[in-house]
Amino acid sequence: MPRPSPLRVLRNRVYVPWVPIPEGRLVELSGRGTTYVTDTAGPSPDSPTVVLLHALGCTGLLTWFPAIGRLSRKYRVVTLDQRWHGQGIQSDAFSLYDCADDVAALVEELGLRDVIVAGYSMGGVVAQRVWRQHPDLVRGLVLCSTTDRFQLNPAERLFFTGMGATMLGLREVSRSRTVTRAARAAADAVDLAPTDIQDWAMAEFRSTSPWAVGQALAALGRHHSRPWLDRIDVPTAVVVTTRDKVIPAARQAGLARAIRGATMHEVDSGHAACVLESEKFVPALLEAVATVNARRRDFARR
Predict the structure, then answer these.
(1) Tell me: the pLDDT tens digits for 100-154?
(2) Nearest 5°: phi and psi at 224?
């Protein structure tokens, strides 16, 4: 009897919540490239906007699909595939600085205002950089399951140093493999309302090349925002996943303490809570966004 493939075992054992998947479109960002965007309307034309930035190795929809519908009851909700991920921008190199500029370009392209930028894991790092590079576009931050730096002990420094050197040597291979995956994802993205949510989720996950993940991971190792976190001057909330084995909860809490006035919202879950424990994560996210939005209005009246 043939043994089941690892992917089939994963498919049968991993719970993926079923919710409607928003339709999206490819958007050209002037002078930068094309990325896949979903834009879900809020309850009114004046609804504030939440721009959602996804985790490493994911897509905008794969990280956030359990939360979009709930958020859209009060906010306009926008996702995008960040560069080298899914159907994101294909560039010569991966840079967190470029990712932040991409977000700013999308805000301008869509004419968004009253923008709250929310990021998960890698997306939380990019969200920090969006404020740093484009503070005039950001009215609030929600940072989920993320940190301000990764190289805090000798083992991490050794890992990221090796990763950086390896990925530099493999940059051209990474880019070609990433372009191939992106083209395949675009060809397969005809039906965004699948009958089997697990098949859809697996296709989204496989749309990002492992080579792209390596390049992004190397870039994350170079991130260090602690020197300027105390300058963040917009309402900020930090969602802490307390059983996280990828980014320890203590580091996430340290991020919250380093930002003046940041609120902290704990979730009893691990690093993949955005999907695998969405029943816990989404309420905490809604609370964090609502807190930032309320403080954003107070901040604007000063």
Answers:
(1) 999 999 999 999 999 999 999 999 999 999 999 999 999 999 999 999 987 556 5
(2) -155, 100
DSSP 77-143: EEEEPPTTSTT----SS--HHHHHHHHHHHHHHHT--SEEEEEETHHHHHHHHHHHH-GGG-SEEEE
Q: What is the pLDDT of residue 193?
A: 46
| 117 in Cβ contact with 51 (< 8 Å) | yes
Ranges of each domain in the chain:
17-301
What does pTM read for this prediction? Answer: 0.86
The rounded distance, in Å, linking the Cα atoms of 286 and 298 is 19
CA distance readout (Å), 294 to 30, 50, 77, 289: 33, 13, 17, 9
How many H helices and E strands in the chain?
A: 11, 8
Q: What are phi and psi of 25, to 5 degrees?
A: -155, 160
Is residue 202 within 8 Å of residue 209, measured between CB atoms?
A: no
Give the H or E element holding residue 264: strand 263-267
The upper half-sphere exposure of residue 63, i.e. CA atoms within 13 Å in the direction of its Cβ, equals 30
Beta bridge partners of 27: 35
The fold of 17-301 is Rossmann fold (3.40.50)
Q: Determine the pLDDT at residue 299.
A: 62
Q: With CA atoms as reference, report the closest residue to 142 among 288, 297, 293.
A: 288
The full length of the chain comes to 302
